[in-house]
Specification:
Strand content: over 45%
Strand order of the largest sheet: 2-3-6-7-5-4
Structural class: alpha+beta
Radius of gyration: 30 Å
Mean pLDDT: 82
Low-confidence stretches: none
Number of helices: 1
Order of helices and strands: HEEEEEEEEEEEE
Shape: elongated
Number of strands: 12
Helix content: 10-25%
Length: 184
């Protein structure tokens, strides 16, 4: 049997140390890769939702959507409705306003809802507004957009770009308007 020489001892020690370092680096590299991956994912995920909002025992809104994603843990929390939504708003007398959109996002800090993609808002008296994007200020119960719109009521049809109005359509301010409207 041959004994190790002085020159072969460092070589024998270097091989296991090199293997140990390679495995240690592999583990650290995987940890570094994980840190680079964004943890931005919803804290809540719901399918086929039907939410009823109440105030003092009275239903104030009914939200129906096939998909809801809640990002409540984000720096700026929001709720997303990627497959669209239908919202019915009720006033104190029970009159209803209906809102449909292909996509919606509700910002929790500002209480604004951004409705997008073939947005239609209507009420029981036949007033109807169609646009591609509409914002709803929940606190003030006020809608607004700078996009083109079509507004239909029992007084006629109007087209324009930029409008804001109350949820019951009693107050309507529009810009760049054209169409035929019957006045009193």
């Amino acid at each position: 049997m041959r004994l190790p020489t002085k020159n072969s001892i460092p070589t024998l020690l270097a091989i296991p140390l090199t293997c140990l370092l390679l495995f240690a680096c592999e583990s650290n590299f995987k940890e570094v890769q994980k840190m680079g991956i964004s943890d931005f994912s919803p804290s809540g995920d719901a399918d086929s939702i039907n939410l009823k909002y109440t105030d003092s025992g009275r239903i104030t809104a009914n939200l129906i959507s096939p998909k809801m994603l809640d990002y409540g843990n984000a720096d700026y929390p929001f709720t997303e409705f990627p497959k669209g939504m239908h919202l019915t708003l009720y006033d104190a007398l029970g009159k209803q306003t209906y809102i449909d959109a292909n996509y919606a996002i509700s910002h929790k800090q500002t209480n604004l809802i951004d409705l997008q993609g073939h947005v239609i808002i209507s009420n029981q008296t036949g007033d109807n507004l169609e646009t591609e994007q509409l914002y709803y200020d929940q606190k003030n119960e006020w809608f607004f957009t700078e996009k083109k719109f079509k507004f239909t009521s029992n007084k006629g049809v109007s087209y324009g770009e930029g409008i804001d109005f109350s949820k019951d359509f009693k107050t309507v301010n529009s810009q760049k308007i054209s169409g035929q409207i019957q006045t009193e």
